[in-house]
Design brief:
Radius of gyration of chain B: 20 Å
CATH class of chain B: Mainly Alpha
CATH topology of chain B: 3 helical TM bundles of succinate and fumarate reductases
Number of strands of chain B: 0
Largest interface: A-B, 51 and 44 residues
Structural class of chain B: mainly alpha
Order of helices and strands of chain A: EEHEEEEEHHHHHHHH
Strand content of chain A: 5-15%
CATH class of the largest domain in chain A: Mainly Alpha
Helix content of chain A: 25-40%
Oligomer: heterodimer
Strand order of the largest sheet of chain A: 2-1-5-3-4
Distance between the termini of chain B: 56 Å
CATH architecture of the largest domain in chain A: Orthogonal Bundle
Order of helices and strands of chain B: HHHHHHHHHH
Amino acid sequence: MEKSINVTLKIWRQAGPKVKGNFEIYKLDNVSTDSSFLEMIDILNEQLIKERKEPIAFDHDCREGICGMCSMYINGQPHGPDGEITTCQLHMRNFHDGQTITVEPWRSAAFPVIKDLMVDRGAFDKIIQAGGFVSINTGGIPDGNAIPIGKNVADEAMDAASCIGCGACVATCKNGSAMLFVSAKVSQLALLPQGRVEAAHRAKLMVAKMDELGFGNCTNTGACEAECPKNVSISHIARLNREYLSAKFQD
Amino acid sequence: MWLIDSSIGRKLIMSISGVFLVLFLLFHATMNIVVIISPAGYNKICEFLGTNWYALVGTAVLAGGFVIHILYALYLTWQNMRARGTQGYAVTKNQKSVEWSSQNMFVLGLIVFGFLCLHLYNFWFHMQYAELAGVKEAFAPADGASFVQALFSNKIYCVIYIVWLCALWFHLTHGVWSALQTVGLNNKTWLPRVKVISTIISTIVVLMFMSIPVYYLLGLGSCSCC
């Protein structure tokens, strides 16, 4: 059932990477509870443009929860209060009339702020470029039954592959660690025959790049798993540790 | 050297030294229990682990384990604070599934270390060190039971030791499963099991240790029959 609420927004404004930022308070009336969080920000931006003010910069793309671009830290949680969704799938029905909503960018040394709520997540791309691919020739398409893969293994690989690289894990981790992301990217390939060939090499390269880019050390708090919009399990982190350690001990 | 240069390498050192210290705690607690069962038997153990060469080597290795664990804790915590960035969040919300202890391992470690220093002064300084340095103490160096009884006749010390052991319990409940996760001995099925194992081990260790101050606090250790 549609209804309208009035909210107060406390949003982080920062003109550029090197400029000091601060919170600005905005009041927004008659927001439909059926609108999404990003639609609400769109409405606010239209209002700001009409007032000849600078609109709020934020990342977004597909708005259907699969691209991993949206990235707001809403009321102390990445992607807001609803579970297992991205910010674009968050709806205003999760908030009540008169509520103050605090919106911040991802905060981590490896994710510098570009402007307002936008952060530079290029570090994730660099980790993928370091080894998150298959470079061997796997030949033509094999017959479906030629290489049997267990259902549980296929499921596990698919669960790991559901990571959209949004960076919520780094944003919420008290150590700013990227282990959940890296472990998902290593697992999705290491579990299947095509990726298995280069698994050891890949784990070493991706972990080395992750460390180089200034991400923290994982202390297994599990905050990443709790906030992950795709529910990626920390059991992948154990697999990454296993892959990495056995690769290093084999050297 | 990848053990020092990589995050997983550093974590491996942290987990291996941690597991070593947990094994020591199990060993230490098992011996302590003897003081309740038989003070004379406990003194035999104290004599056995006095200033013999193997006891001294053991002490040195153990001290090394503590130093590595503590230095790496400082190093990792410093790195993690740097990775978090200079600007903190204005609002943070704790997740239900995240254990409180896992977020506070460093603080719990500091508490455990502080009381450890007191504990070393209470016993080690008066026993093994006194024997090495040839200092005369109130009791013979191998008369551990008398040292224990003298310290725990003070009720404040009993309470201090119980509080210390509570901090240790929180540190271990996260530490044990975290160490297993770091060495890669974990998966989806075993994750909840490993957590239960971790709680059981830490509870056994802490209960064994705690039974001694509780035993003296209840006044059972000062009766004339033993």
